[in-house]
Specification:
Elements: E1 8-11, E2 16-19, E3 27-31, E4 39-43, H1 51-64, E5 72-77, E6 80-86, E7 94-97, H2 98-105, H3 122-132, H4 136-156, E8 167-173, E9 176-181, H5 197-205, H6 209-214, H7 232-242, H8 244-252, H9 259-267, H10 276-294
Parallel strand pairs: 1-5
Antiparallel strand pairs: 2-3, 3-4, 4-6, 5-6, 7-8, 8-9
């Protein structure tokens, strides 16, 4: 039996704090009244997309795999459906996006690039992490966590892990900075959220869901010589071979995952938020990706 449908937050106009300038989608911060209430970011999906349910499903998959992630809920604002993400930059912590980290730590890195940034590679990300977390153990922990995010991208088909879609949380404690890799966030560009049902059905009927996954172009590169980023799956295949110390532990999280786990997550999206074809495609996509990733396990 499927679980209970995910709850839906009814965001009230009086809760709105300010518009959010970063990014292309309409979004705003709000805070529900109450003691110690956190700020939340409401995001409207782009027209005719499933960005809102993609965000929720991705967060639930991350939770099932014990991958550090931003909390996401389905939400409605003035009869418009969207998603709400809980702020993780709080309690004195500030978020430094990946472009800020790499711009300050990797010589020659262009922090202002916005499209097809081939210097945004796994190795440059790891170098930025090494130079941010100065103890070997802290650096290793952050690299494994980042590998988990990249593996999650491959599982859900997230093609938008650009250098502002990861970051480091810093806090001034006493006489020094302390920090950690921020949770994985902004997974709206995943799970075929941009497809119309006619196209989803065509992929399903022709048994080409795997082709859709393999042809996607992600926001992280392996080589600076690449003209376009590899698919999230292709990136993990290479990284698992070349950086197994970090990607091996990430992939281990998938060893016992089965189709039923993913099906239950998808099934809990309320019935009128997602069409049957979208559910079928979403599950088929994740199952294909899961099998490909499990094939990398020893």
């Amino acid at each position: 039996m499927p679980g209970e449908p995910y709850p839906i937050i009814e965001v009230q106009p009086r809760w709105v704090l300010e518009p959010e300038a970063m990014g292309s989608k309409d979004k705003f911060w709000y805070r529900q009244p109450g003691a110690n209430a956190a700020d939340w970011l409401f995001k409207h999906p782009q027209a005719n997309t499933g960005q809102h349910w993609a965000e929720k499903i991705a967060a639930e998959v991350a939770a099932k795999l014990s991958i550090f992630h931003a909390v996401v809920e389905l939400a409605v604002f003035q009869n418009a459906r969207g998603s709400a993400t809980e702020s993780f930059a709080r309690d004195g912590r500030a978020l430094f996006h990946g472009n800020q980290v790499l711009g300050g730590k990797v010589l020659g890195y262009n922090a202002n690039a916005t499209f097809r940034h081939s210097s945004h590679t796994v190795m440059n990300i790891f170098l930025g992490i090494e130079r941010t977390f100065t103890t070997p153990e802290a650096g290793r922990k952050a690299k494994v966590r980042m590998a988990e995010y990249v593996m999650l991208d491959a599982l859900i088909g997230n093609t938008d892990r650009h250098h502002e879609n990861w970051g480091i949380l810093r806090k001034w404690t006493g006489d020094h900075w302390s920090g950690s890799l921020a949770p994985s966030f902004d997974h709206a560009s995943s799970l075929g959220r941009e497809l119309r049902d006619e196209k989803r059905l065509q992929f399903l009927t022709d048994n080409r869901v795997g082709s859709y996954s393999e042809k996607g172009h992600g926001g992280i590169y392996w080589s600076q010589d690449e003209k376009r980023g590899p698919s999230p799956l292709a990136l993990v295949r290479t990284a698992a071979r070349e950086q197994g110390e970090f990607f091996g532990p990430a992939l281990e999280k998938l060893r016992t995952v089965e189709r039923g786990v993913l099906s239950e997550i998808v099934d809990r999206v309320p019935a009128d938020w997602m069409t049957p074809v979208a559910r079928q495609f979403t599950l088929a996509l994740m199952c294909y990706n899961l099998q490909q990733l499990q094939n990398l396990l020893p």
